[in-house]
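Worked example

This section walks through a single chain of length 262. The input is the sequence exactly as stored; nothing has been trimmed or padded.
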Amino acid sequence: MKHLNLFLLFCLCIFNSATGQEQFTVYFDFDIDEATTTSGKGLSLWIAANKDAQIIKVYGFADAIGNKYYNVDISERRAAYVVSQLKANGFGVENIESIGYGAQQASGGKNAKDRKVIVYFTKPEAIVEEETKQPETTFTRTVTTAETGDKIRIPNLNFYNNSDIILPESRPILNELLTIMRDKPLLKIDIQGHICCQKNEENQISLRRAVAIYAFLIRNGIDKSRLSYKSFGSSKPIYPLPEKTEAEKVANRRVEIEIISH
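Given that input, the structure is written out below as tokens.
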């Protein structure tokens, strides 16, 4: 029976590859059902960069230490932990397949790589409007004539409140940035997130927004060696805190690109 289960799991992995599903792995310490510190941070960054992912299934695994029933139990709890993290960040996980496979994939002994959860997901096709020759905009002209070290705000880039999910009306400026990166293959940029209104940032919003732009460009074919990202929270406001007007808040709440080389 064990060999049959392993064979079925192997077949599932082949099927996943054939159907275009992707996967992300989260690792756990021995006898623990919460992610390791490093893997937990990795999961947070993955979540921030993959808000449009559709979760298909979450499979938990254990190492070979312990009996069969305990290993199944802890692998189920690890899968449930990851599902809870996804749900807390807005992913639809109500109808996904969440299974604990115990030590079925274990290589033997107390192997850290066996203590894991694999998240299977799909991504929608990148939405890029049909390319037509458009008049050069102020943003394109500013970027293409900028010098190394210049910082340029991405205009008309907006997010849902307290979120890194980009509003649909921001698609044109994202496509414009993508076109610039395609037309200037030597251009390298650093994407920088900022917030307004508060000295102490919550939920790493400025970082997650920078990562969202980074992920968009990578999904549309821009090599990651040309991109980097960071966040400043409210440490580099254009206008001093507290802002006096809504316009000052909008100006401080921004994503900029810094020209690294071109």
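What to look for: Residues 1-19 have pLDDT under 50 and may be disordered.
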